[in-house]
Design a protein that fits this description.
Immunoglobulin-like; mainly beta; five-stranded antiparallel β-sheet
């Protein structure tokens, strides 16, 4: 028996928009330049504290059309591989939006134009202990786009664009994380990849890059970097984050594989964890 509630038109529209926004967040998080469709946003994340109460984002319009957009907040909880819509209970302990102001709330960008988005801690706000996070969401209105069909006529569709970036506020606390549950696997083409978990163990999320390198057992061999994953975050609202790095080889030979999780941004210069693994010679 189906116990799902029947959704009216307004509820269905909100549900569809939520899944669209989630897709936009995941896509923009994977884009190295923070670009999606015809709008760009940088940097990829920002952190505010009692001392650093204001941050700025830059949005730009690389397209050939005028963009009308709006700025808002959305709360997402971290999962093993991405994000999910935050529940009301999660929002209560996770959301940074009540502590923040953002301006402008609406904007218009001509082709090639750029605009600053300013995010501030409210004048009376004191960052709570630990960490809170909300996603700054930039959305633009629908643009009518021609999609070619097999016939000589096209299909006109309206396409909305959006992009997001996490905004974090921090009170008293610290950051730490470990590399755990590491496995050497193969992809669909038989190439090696390393799969591991970044597990946070303090009140702040961690941020940095994960590097996989290999030192052959042969004394004359040289250590080489096999792969790097940038923008690796260990969020405190999930037990761990799954990270995979393609290594680009069918076999490594005998030697030592090293995984190193180094800080970036506010954690630049810090090493959160490093693990070494002996690799046996192929049989």
């Amino acid at each position: 028996m189906n116990t799902d509630p029947i959704l009216g038109p307004k509820a269905r529209d909100m549900k569809h928009r939520l899944f669209l926004i989630l897709g936009l967040i995941l896509a923009s998080a994977l884009a190295p330049t923070g670009a999606l469709a015809d709008i760009e946003l940088s940097p990829l994340r920002q952190v505010l504290t009692a001392e650093n109460r204001e941050v700025r984002f830059i949005i730009s319009n690389p397209s050939k059309r005028i963009l009308d957009g709006q700025v808002s907040w959305i709360d997402m909880s971290a999962t093993e591989t991405g994000y999910a819509p935050a529940t009301p209970e999660q929002r209560t302990r996770l959301s940074a939006a009540p502590y923040l102001t953002v301006s402008p709330a609406q904007f218009r960008l001509n082709p090639g134009e750029r605009r600053e988005i300013v995010v501030r801690l409210r004048d009376e706000a004191t960052p709570p202990e630990g960490e809170r996070r909300s996603h700054l969401l930039i959305e633009t209105g629908a643009a009518r786009t021609l999609i070619r069909k097999a016939s000589d006529k096209g299909l006109q569709v309206d396409i909305e664009a959006g992009i997001s970036a996490p905004v974090i506020i921090r009170g008293d606390g610290k950051a730490d994380a470990s590399i755990e549950n590491t496995k050497l696997l193969r992809d669909s083409e038989g190439m090696l990849l390393v799969s591991t978990m970044i597990t946070p163990s303090a009140s702040y999320s961690t941020y940095g890059k994960l590097t996989a390198s290999f030192s052959p057992a042969d004394p004359e061999g040289k250590r080489s970097v096999l792969g790097i994953r940038e923008n690796v975050t260990g969020y405190t609202d999930t037990e761990h984050r799954l990270i995979e790095i393609p290594l680009g080889f069918f076999s490594l030979g005998a030697g030592e594989l090293t995984l190193r999780y180094e800080g970036a941004g506010e954690f630049a210069g810090r090493v959160f964890d490093e693990r070494k693994f002996d690799i046996a010679p192929p049989k």
